[in-house]
């Protein structure tokens, strides 16, 4: 038994090289074949990126509304109607899949936004953002400017029956109202109009989407109200919403204001 044990140990320590060599060579051959095959091109071609996917990626990445014409230029097509077709198809897909966002047309462009049904949860996420307080008087003044623009301060005061200078200045600071020119009247008073950010805050594609003037019968402030808070699907970045204004105009916050309507006696405009 000792001899057998010795023989087994000897065989283990000194294997027959002639027997081992073919195994090693075969192993090397197999490894080499694996390495070579790993560098061979994959016969299965990667799926081709569709224009609709490119439109979706562009809108996901932007933090401000993009006009269809600009998306078409990025996409490399000459017709903005093609872009609108892709957006309609994407929205239908989002609806069919029950997703929490849509592509909305606001402020003359398109932007990917969450649905209002998710406001209760998103408001908890956004509580850390500064809230811009908008009084009923400011909202009424803003409605007058929106419907009557371009309008002078005297015109606003004539409609409201009270001084409007401070309220207009506050609305300019919030980048909701801007100076658009001067009237030809005596003294050439300044003319006021709404900004692009006004359209974004109130969820309007253009001023043509403002409610009918008949709504003003219940009070100017009843005609417009800030939209429910929504979140852009794009990462937060420096906004490009503000437009070039007079040197005295204040610059809006990059992320845009979160509006809250309060009573006049709770907070001055």
**Total beta-strand segments:** 7
What portion of the residues fall into strands of 2 or more residues?
5-15%
User: Mind telling me the C-alpha Rg?
Assistant: 33 Å
CATH superfamily of the largest domain: Winged helix-like DNA-binding domain superfamily/Winged helix DNA-binding domain
CATH class of the largest domain: Mainly Alpha
H/E order of the elements? HHHHHEEHEHEHHEEHE
Query: How would a crystallographer describe the biggest sheet?
Result: 3 strands, antiparallel
Any low-confidence stretches, pLDDT <50, length ≥5?
Answer: 1-39, 219-223, 235-258, 265-269
Report the span from N to C terminus.
Answer: 105 Å
Shape: elongated
Structural class: alpha+beta
From the 3D structure, determine the CATH topology of the largest domain.
Answer: Arc Repressor Mutant, subunit A
Give the topology:
Blueprint (H helix, E strand, L loop, with lengths): L1 H12 L3 H22 L12 H11 L6 H8 L4 H18 L3 E6 L2 E6 L4 H7 L5 E5 H13 L2 E2 H8 L4 H9 L3 E6 L7 E5 L1 H6 L56 E5 L7
Parallel strand pairs: 3-7
Antiparallel strand pairs: 1-2, 4-6, 5-6
Helix pairs in contact: 3-5, 4-5, 7-9
If you had to describe this structure to a student in words, what would you say it looks like?
The protein is α+β, with helices and mostly antiparallel strands and 269 residues long. It contains ten helices and seven strands. Strand 1 and strand 2 form a beta hairpin. Helix 4 packs across helix 5 and helix 7 packs across helix 9. The longest helix is centred in the N-terminal third of the chain and has 22 residues. The radius of gyration is 33 Å and the shape is elongated.
């Amino acid at each position: 038994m000792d001899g057998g044990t010795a023989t087994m140990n000897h065989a283990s320590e000194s294997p027959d090289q002639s027997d081992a060599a073919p195994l090693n060579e075969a192993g090397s051959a197999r490894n080499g074949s694996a390495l070579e095959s790993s560098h061979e091109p994959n016969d299965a071609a990667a799926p081709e990126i569709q224009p609709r996917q490119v439109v979706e990626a562009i809108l996901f990445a932007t933090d401000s509304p993009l006009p269809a014409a600009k998306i078409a230029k990025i996409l490399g097509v000459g017709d903005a109607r093609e872009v609108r077709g892709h957006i309609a198809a994407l929205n239908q897909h989002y609806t069919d899949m029950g997703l929490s966002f849509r592509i909305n047309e606001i402020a003359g462009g398109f932007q990917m936004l969450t649905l209002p049904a998710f406001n209760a949860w998103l408001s908890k996420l956004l509580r850390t953002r500064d809230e811009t307080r908008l009084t009923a008087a400011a909202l009424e003044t803003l409605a007058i400017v929106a419907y009557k623009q371009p309008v002078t301060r005297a015109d606003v005061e004539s409609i409201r029956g009270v001084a409007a200078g401070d309220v207009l200045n506050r609305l300019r600071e919030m980048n909701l109202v801007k100076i658009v020119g001067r009237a030809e009247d005596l003294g050439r008073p300044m003319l006021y109009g709404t900004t692009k950010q006004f359209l974004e805050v109130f969820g309007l594609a253009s001023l043509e989407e403002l409610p009918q003037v008949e709504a003003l019968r219940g009070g100017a402030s009843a005609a417009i109200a800030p939209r429910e808070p929504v979140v852009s699907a794009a990462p937060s970045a420096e906004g490009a919403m503000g437009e070039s204004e007079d040197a005295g105009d204040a610059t809006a916050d990059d992320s845009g204001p979160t509006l809250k309507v309060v009573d006049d006696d709770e907070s001055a405009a």
